[in-house]
Amino acid sequence: MPIVSGKHLRRISDRNRKSNASALDSQSADNAEKFITTRKIDSFESLAKFTADKEQKYSQLETVHLSKGQKLNRLKELSKMYALYAPIQATYKESQSLKGFAKMKYDKEHKDSLSKYPELKERMQSLLQNGEKITPKQWKAEIQSLQSEYDNIGREQTKTATELAYAEVNKKNLERELQNEGRQQNRQQSRTKRREEEI
Predict the structure, then answer these.
(1) pTM over 0.70
(2) How would DSSP label each residue in 99-118?
């Protein structure tokens, strides 16, 4: 009977449909046996150690993944804000470079953009930290690099969660087998006892 609940099974089934297939796969007897064999798990103790090591790894990956995700989101927010701010800033700079009637005419034609400039400038400045400069090219490069790292860590996290799910299923299966063996021994002992009493 497959186990459809469990801390680690939920982790991987929450990630995506492909991982969900892995979670269900982890419950097949052949895959469970292969998992135990390839990792040289031969006792509850070795299974417990494997699980503890993988849980520690998963926790570390989760921390790094969260940190990179936050940094990535911040850079994406900066880039998005800059995309709004840059054209308005260019209009403002052009206005400042003009004099007399040319400035009046330009300002009249770009009234809407110029009216947005103070608010957008303030919003842009509020996103920058500790004297940070506006560096859109650098942000773009960092976003690409971070996105790659973030995705790799996410894949490693899914792999680790899958291994933990396998361990979880195997532990439950082993417990169930031991209970069944215990029940069978008790039944056998009861039968033997009844036969002895009958004799």
Answers:
(1) no
(2) -HHHHHHHHHHTHHHHHHHH
